[in-house]
Amino acid sequence: MSQDEVVITALHRDLRCKYEKHFQTIEKVWSLANQAKRQQLFQGCTHPLYEPEQDWNVADITEDKDLFLRMLTWRATSTLENQFHWGLHWARGGDIEAADQEQLEQWMKCPSYHEGTYTYIQDDFYGETFDVEAKLMDDCTRTGYSPKLTGLMRRWNLMPYRLVSVVLRRQVNILYCLNALVDKVLDTEKAQCLEKSARYAEEDRTPTLDGLIASAEGYKTHYQTCLYRFYIDTRFLSQCVRDQLDSRPDRTCHLRRSDQQYLAGPIGRDIFDATYTKVRSLAFWRSVRELLALYSTGGN
Q1: Taxonomically, which superkingdom (predicted)?
Q2: How far from chain centre, in Å, is Cα 47?
Q3: Which of 131, 190, 194, 236 has the highest local Cβ count within 10 Å?
Q4: From CA 200, how far away is CA 191, in angstroms rounded?
Q5: In this predicted model, what pLDDT tens digit does every residue of 41-61 receive, in sequence order?
Q6: H helices present in the chain, as ranges
Q7: Rounded to 5 degrees, what are φ and ψ at 160?
């Protein structure tokens, strides 16, 4: 069994895990990046032992920002078996040598087993290879026939390794490259977050005296405006009185005609409370403003 067949399932599992946990982050970083940034991310995302696949090239992957996301989604969510059969169709279109192509076509028309190395194309044992010997099967007949092996091969769950190894190699290559690119995208997002955190930590957010004075001035102006509106805007006064009434612990309500809600209780108290609240707040912020201004002109 080659090392690549051992790692196929691990590569697929890692890619699926990253996709499920971080796809929104991956999509955001990749979509917001311009083509130059995507090209920078793409650099180095190749298998150390294999040449890049035909559809894994910098032009296609970086020009169409959705291509990488579609490829990632399909490879992460589709089963290895489904990916294999798609890859087998691709390989039959040109990846397999002519002699092997002819043998594969013949085998697929009439699956059979002989002495040799075969590969499982089932998710439970995907990519595992072993030497087939019918006589070692527990259902082997006197004529050397094994119904189990025959069934596996007719369903294309067991195929000659020599004829399909190019498909497995392509799977390893693409899954490896996708994992590498996803890691670089996530590292970019992590670096950006750390940079933002560092900038935030370095910022001096201590309020200045001038800022406090300006804030107090703003509150003072707000309450002055409220009192002026009491005088010229009866609707504003009415709303403030209603808010004051709603906040009263002993407020009472009862329903009368047409399900209209009427508020009971002495309204004069609420008018006074609404006005007094604004006057008291204005006096407070005016005093704060004057004290801060006095402090600012008094040196130490």
Answers
A1: Eukaryota
A2: 25
A3: 236
A4: 14
A5: 999 898 888 888 888 888 888
A6: 3-32, 35-42, 58-63, 65-77, 80-90, 98-109, 147-154, 161-202, 209-232, 234-246, 267-297
A7: -60, 125
